[in-house]
TrEMBL record:
Pfam families: Epimerase (PF01370). This is UDP-sulfoquinovose synthase. Keywords: Hydrolase. Belongs to the NAD(P)-dependent epimerase/dehydratase family. Its EC number is 3.13.1.1. Residues 3-291 form the NAD-dependent epimerase/dehydratase domain. One of its GO terms (molecular function) is UDPsulfoquinovose synthase activity. The gene is agl3.
Length: 388
């Protein structure tokens, strides 16, 4: 297959480029390097220093014997995106080129607007480009489990659900209730894609993925091939953050009561899942929604796990619940249907506990680098403050 990855410089984009290239697919990466700059904007950086894209593509060529084409380009620029798609005429396009942090979207009005403009525009540009070049191109779009929120009913893998109102029945898009501007931007993306599927018969996989954790995927065989790893209060996600807190001797920080429950997946298993979805596209003209999670835990359970694993590695670890900066349920029902990936052969290889050990071991050599960022760990971005 020939695959374009939009957002190829990111936490998932880079290892996916390596995975697909290693499997013999032709890979074309596109990224405007926004995340690198936006992480520095909040005073932080990746735990592992990142070579420039061109340097790590050269390292991939040397160490893995793969060729990746790369463009520094902004997907908000329709003409540029269109030119790349027209030039390469891919079989599939992976869309990761979105602002992916919930706290970043909640900083103030500018960050809220940036999130909406970037995320919605990029998807609309992609839709229009595909219509012009070839409407049979498969779009693999990264959505999020957070589009659904934490409802008191099961989260199905279904674009539609049947409802009865005043005795009359009809199908409506599966209900969504997000909990940040970022997560809402993904909801609107999903509805936009559903509509594009109806109007132009586009072939779409919309992935509802839970928080991803980990430092390793099969192709990351050398420091030069590492993917970025964020841990600050804006860009870090919970498991990765706890591991950095553990290495730095800081208390682990479940927000509020800590009963917030999510479906998690390791970096390696996310790569396996994404590859399967690309290699087994939906039928032409189908909109397929996939729940991409493996294990379900509360953030308090994860803190206990990190404490146990970290202490077995000789670290001293405390858990200190902090005031929840977010507006979210801290105790709730959570049950997610996951049928599609197993039906395609998905067999998760990693359990969170063993990956926590790997993450901590990978981070320990970078402890002195991490010490420089201690001040960006505790949550400062408060949902309720809403600065303008
Ligand atoms: N949390 C803590 N302590 C921390 C950090 C987070 O208790 O130190 C809690 C949050 O309050 C939240 C949960 O952990 O209840 C998850 O937060 P997160 O920061 O790990 O992840 P989230 O903001 O939801 O976003 C991340 C990615 C996003 C992706 C999403 C999947 O940044 O791109 O879409 O995970 S999901 O969570 O399923 O929506």
């Amino acid at each position: 297959m020939r695959v374009i990855i939009l957002g190829a410089d990111g936490y998932l984009g880079w290892p996916l480029a390596l995975r697909l290239a290693k499997r013999g697919h032709e890979v074309i990466g596109v990224d405007n390097l926004y995340t690198r700059n936006a992480v520095r904007e909040v005073g932080s950086d990746s735990a592992f220093p990142l070579p420039d894209p061109e340097e790590r593509i050269a390292a991939a060529r040397k160490l893995l014997d793969v060729n990746i084409t790369f463009y520094r380009a902004d997907v908000k620029d329709f003409d540029k995106l269109h030119e790349i798609i027209q030039r390469h005429k891919p079989d599939a396009i992976v869309h990761f080129a979105e602002q992916r942090s919930a706290p970043y979207s909640m900083i103030d009005v500018n960050h809220a607007n940036y999130t909406f403009i970037n995320n919605i525009t990029s998807t609309i540009n992609l839709i229009y480009s595909i219509i012009k070049v070839d409407p049979t191109i498969h779009i693999l779009k990264m959505g999020t489990m957070g589009e659904y929120g934490t409802p008191n009913y099961d989260i199905l893998e279904a674009p539609f659900v049947e409802v009865e109102i005043n005795g009359k029945r009809d199908k409506i898009p599966f209900p969504k209730w997000a909990s940040s501007w970022y997560h809402w931007s993904k909801v609107y993306d999903s509805y936009n894609l559903l509509w594009a599927n109806k109007v132009w018969n586009l072939t779409i996989t919309d992935i509802m993925q839970g928080p991803v954790y980990g430092t390793r995927s099969e192709e990351i065989i050398d420091e030069k091939l590492r993917t970025r790893f964020d841990f600050d209060e804006v860009w870090g996600t919970v498991v990765n953050r706890y591991c950095v807190e553990a290495v730095l001797g800081l208390p682990l920080t479940p927000y509020g009561k800590g009963g917030q429950t999510r479906g998690f997946i390791s970096l390696e298993d996310s790569m396996q899942a994404l590859t399967l979805l690309l290699e087994h596209p939906p039928n032409q003209g189908e909109y397929r929604v996939v729940n991409q999670i493996h294990e379900v835990y509360s953030v308090a359970q994860i803190a206990s796990m990190v404490k146990e694993v970290g202490e077995s590695l000789g670290l001293k670890i405390d858990i200190q619940h902090v005031n929840n900066p977010r507006v979210e349920k801290e105790e709730h029902y959570y049950n997610v249907e996951t049928k599609i990936l197993p039906s395609l052969g998905f067999r998760p290889k990693k359990r969170m506990k063993e990956e926590i050990r790997n993450i901590i071991q990978d981070l320990i050599p970078y402890k002195s680098r991490l010490e420089n960022f201690k001040h960006v760990i505790l949550p400062k971005t408060d949902w309720r403050k809403g600065r303008s």
